[in-house]
Design a protein that fits this description.
The protein is α/β, with parallel strands linked by helices.
């Protein structure tokens, strides 16, 4: 596909540099350049674009207002900021309308890889209408109780980082939005893969407070009891998968990046279910089926939409700039054979943790949920025996308390 991208900056030298820097992408991308927000909006009126990449501070219509207007009028357009204003107070204005933030100056490879990952992830979804809705999705549902606990802790004279981290990781929606900010460069250098318990520590209490005060950064949907219970169940299950995936990874490798990625990907592996709720793909009567993604009723919901919760989660993760290992784990956590890996990875840890914990919800042994062909292809001698050891040692001692 030949992508069409609009770059917006009021400095002619910046646009000239981008044109020169990205010359090698001319066979794959059609590039256009606008000297400010007003010119960009005129271009959007007369032409279709897949992506807009804008500076923040420009005379007239600034980057934040431009992206808000684009989100409203052209919801299918992927929205990037390319600016040197990271950690500036004005960054808070774009944390919602922008999908990703790139620091100026950025190397050509960074710009190319970030844009390609976002575009390729979005086109996992083949339904044009659904893809447009996903592009314009600002948040996914969070638990009201989690936000109240977060707010209460932040009002204390000395908020406790560990307590705040525990609240954040108890809720998939909160974690997903904070991870968006750290995967991209909204508040400085992209952190990529990190321990999920470090999200609050890295962002800082001051930023968390401001985000909590912002209208619409975290989405508490006006939901009935069924949906509220469903959001809680998804977060409770995901927290357990995160903990268990971390334990499995620690058993198999000393690579801290794989271990940390297993924890964060385990926490976010089912975020696609929250996307389904946010986009109203399921109605109230179908919500109880969400807890069993292996069941025929839930699979029928996915078939009717032409996409799965795993694909929806991966597409949003790509839009929000998550690292590729986390995107792939979200997408393939039920069928890892499709990725074609040949060694133990984050995906291995999350796939096995999900299979082991699904036994709580299904009347069958967890071993039946493992992708045996995939595990055999990795050549991990004694792996399933070690998993059984974790079941006996960790699960029976209730590691999730």
């Amino acid at each position: 596909m030949n992508w069409k991208i609009l770059f917006v900056d009021d400095e002619a030298n910046i646009l000239k540099g981008l044109r020169r820097m990205l010359r090698g992408m001319r066979k794959e991308w059609e590039l256009q350049f606008a000297g400010g927000g007003e010119e960009a909006l005129e271009n959007l009126k007369t032409d279709h674009f897949d992506v807009i990449v804008t500076d923040m501070r420009m005379p007239g219509i600034g980057g934040a207002d431009l992206l808000k207007e684009v989100a409203k009028k052209y919801p299918n357009v992927i929205r990037f900021v390319l600016s040197g204003q990271a950690r500036d107070e004005s960054v808070l204005e774009v944390v919602n309308p922008a999908h990703q933030f790139l620091i100026k100056p950025s190397q050509a490879d960074r710009i190319k890889s970030s844009l390609c990952k976002a575009m390729n992830s979005l086109y996992i979804i083949h339904n044009d209408v659904l893809r447009g809705k996903l592009t314009n999705l600002l948040s996914i549902p969070v638990q009201d109780i989690a936000l109240k606990e977060l707010s209460l802790e932040l009002t204390r004279e000395k908020p406790d980082i560990q307590t705040l981290s525990s609240i954040v990781t108890s809720d998939v929606g909160i974690t997903a939005k904070l991870y968006k900010l750290l995967s991209s460069s909204f508040f400085g250098t992209s952190m990529s893969v990190m321990d999920s318990n470090k999200l609050v520590e890295i962002l800082g209490i001051g930023i968390i407070k401001k985000l909590l005060e912002m209208n619409g950064f975290f989405a508490v949907y006006d939901v009935g009891a069924k949906m509220g219970e469903c959001v809680k169940e998804i977060s409770d299950h995901s927290r357990k998968v995160s903990i268990l995936a971390g334990k499995i990874a620690e058993t198999e490798t000393e690579d801290s990046e794989i271990i940390n990625a297993a924890k964060i990907a385990g926490l976010l592996h089912d975020m696609g279910k929250l996307v389904m709720l946010a986009l109203e793909i399921v109605d109230e009567e179908q919500i109880p089926y969400m807890g069993n993604e292996y069941g025929s009723a839930f699979k029928q919901i996915e078939r009717e939409q032409g996409t799965s919760h795993s694909e929806l989660g991966a597409a949003l993760a790509g839009l929000w700039g998550y690292p590729s290992t986390v995107i792939d784990t979200i997408r393939f956590h039920h069928n890892p054979s499709l990725l074609g890996e040949k060694s133990f990875s984050t995906l291995t840890a999350v796939h096995t943790a999900e299979a082991m914990l699904s036994g709580d919800r299904l009347d069958m042994s967890w071993e039946h949920r493992l992708d045996s062909d995939y595990l055999n292809s990795l050549g991990l001698e004694g792996f399933e025996e070690r998993l059984k050891g974790i079941v006996d040692r960790e699960l029976k001692e209730d590691m999730f308390v």
